[in-house]
Amino acid sequence: MTALERIRREKGITQVALANATNLSQPFIHDLEKGNRGAKRETLNKIAAALGCNVSDLVEEQED
Questions:
Q1: Residue 37, exposed/middle/buried by CB under 10 A (0-12, 13-18, 19+)?
Q2: Would you tell me the crossing angle of helices 15-22 and 26-34 to the nearest 10 degrees?
């Protein structure tokens, strides 16, 4: 599980709600969470603002 997915789930926010809050698509959010694609800093800033966290929280390495 990526940091993005973990934080989103902890906050109780769905992928659809996050997509709507950031003007991104739900499939894009899904791909980010699964590590299938990367995001520009501007996009990460939008996601972090919507989740109420820092960009650094989103990109931290997770041990499974």
A1: exposed
A2: 110
Determine contact, residues 58/8, Cβ cutoff 8 Å.
no
> What stretch of H or E contains 56?
helix 55-59
Assess contact for 11 and 49: CB atoms under 8 A: no
Q: What percentage of the chain has pLDDT greater than the value 90?
A: 88
Nearest to 19 by CA among 56, 42, 47, 45: 47
- Over residues 23-42, the pLDDT tens digits come to 999 999 999 999 999 999 99
